[in-house]
């Protein structure tokens, strides 16, 4: 009798263990990508079914770049002749106008240059008078041709010397025509070559600057443009005039148009695309980072309503109808979206898909297929 009881216990134990695979099988069903609904469940969930349609949609190319200005709008200010900085009242960010005095420099060589010019000018007047006199004598054959040629050579050489000294004076903003012995100055002024803003100040009062030193940097923001980096596979789809929607870090939206496409690919397999803003905004500054979306030409693509696409664990899916009340969740790659539709880049079969309330199916599937 005791042996019978032990045998019955062993049989019961094995019978209990054999029920566990059923639990595992049930979990496998829950984790599958298919789900079945009753007609009542489909009606209450508002499930809509139709085929994917071919639509005309413009593709959006997402890129990024920086605000920049053309090279001709950036000016490095230096002085052709060295000198000591006497006065300067500039700070980065200050606005300046073209012709405005930026700084004053002093140096003995400025005095020497003005002196050389005035002496050369006086000597030229003497040589010109002598040349006129010798020319008349030569025409009357009262002097030798050799003497006349020497006077003429001295006169022509002095004109060259005076002209070169005058050009050197203009380099330091001194007008030769206004210079005389009563207004010789030991200082010169540096004027702003453009209107704009000061971006760099590299000197201080009392410092000696040489011709190779950059004293200030100015920028003219009137021709701001957006320089975008576009990979080589996308450059072929771009052309001047295409619309660009760009966003600054403050999420402010701006519009622009492609103006110029650099016709070469750099070592990073990308090219630069220059865009002009439709409207200037003083809040836009050179060096500012921006995200941009370029609207490409219309294309015939497979598209579904945005409600048909669901996301799960960083992947995108749609549901195919596999029969009455039966649906299969399939991963797809999506593209651009427009007017409530989203492009499906993945090749999909010509089947009915769930186009409305697809998330209801996803929630029911991931909740274990239990009835709501």
TrEMBL record:
Residues 303-360 form the CzcB-like C-terminal circularly permuted SH3-like domain. Residues 74-219 form the CzcB-like barrel-sandwich hybrid domain. One of its GO terms (cellular component) is membrane. The keyword Transport applies. One of its GO terms (molecular function) is transmembrane transporter activity. GO terms for biological process: copper ion export; plasma membrane copper ion transport. The keyword Acetylation does not apply. Pfam families: BSH_CzcB (PF25973), CzcB_C (PF25975). InterPro entries: BSH_CzcB-like (IPR058647), CzcB_C (IPR058649), MFP_Cation_Efflux (IPR051909), RND_pump_MFP (IPR006143). Keywords: Transport. Belongs to the membrane fusion protein (MFP) (TC 8.A.1) family. This is Efflux RND transporter periplasmic adaptor subunit. It comes from Chitinophaga oryziterrae. The lineage of its organism: Bacteria, Pseudomonadati, Bacteroidota, Chitinophagia, Chitinophagales.
